[in-house]
# Entry
Amino acid sequence: MASTYVAGGDVEYGRYGNPTWTAFEEALGGLEGGRCLAFASGLAAVATIFDLVGNGQKVVAPRHAYLGSIMQLGDLELRERVKPTLVDITDTAAVVAACDDASLVWLESPTNPAMEVADIPTICEAAHAAGAYVVVDNTFATPILQQPLDLGADLVVHSVTKYISGHADALMGALVTRDDELYGVLKGRRDMYGAIPGTLEAWLALRGLRTLPLRMERAQANAQELVRRLGERADVSEVRYPGFGAIVGMVLPNGGIADLVQHGTALWVYATSLGGVESTLERRRRWKSEPATIPEGLIRLSVGIEDIEDLWDDLSQALDSAVG
Ligand SMILES: Cc1ncc(COP(=O)(O)O)c(C=O)c1O
# Structure
């Protein structure tokens, strides 16, 4: 904990660096295979990237990217700063075609909460041929399951708030890149604009990171079993799951039933956010700005590390009473 340092050392002031950030950045950078910068939140990291786009330039992004990222693009469009083109990231040919005159291609894979997966290597190739940078929001997969820099991306962004930190007790973000020039520009922006994490948050995130592989393994195993069991229930219209990770989209016949389920659990916490050790759930369309292409009855399950039978007992009793 320090806001300033003895003059003449490596770091002069707390906005430019902190040994606890450095420890965290070395750990996450190592996992993603690049140099990492910690930020105040996921959206502070996202805003720092969008700020690099030249005036009037085109940004390609998934129509179902995280709402906050889409809202930033909408705000920038309104102010005629950038020209966003929203695409269906599962339609690789359409994404490749949209890359043509783009300056930035934003990917999120899987998407939040539609659970769509992008063909990252093919899109990176097309974007680079057009001279565009590619950013992948890797919040859902984490570097344990997917390493976008190895797939060709220039930058990885994380809401550290979620799996990386993992205990729903800290807000933080991060960027990772292998491009030293880009790293220098981004660090300069963080120094200048001050979207820096708190020392305590960095310490909590670093502590959380130590158990990331164990948490992901258990949460993913729980999610896969829940997907199997939910698939056997006639009252669940659709289960959206890309085959990896611990976020599941459970689509119920309508918003009314989904509301009853999200209020009807005891162990599962009705709350936004995701990626913590405790399981949470929420009907995403409760947020007015969530796109109409997300079904009214879609509940996003963030599966935690509890006992699978406890999770199933609680969820199935909530489903039974909502449809009964
Ligand atoms: C995929 C994804 N990216 C970015 C963010 C934003 O992160 P933060 O809430 O840490 O600002 C979120 C938050 O929900 C997210 O789910």
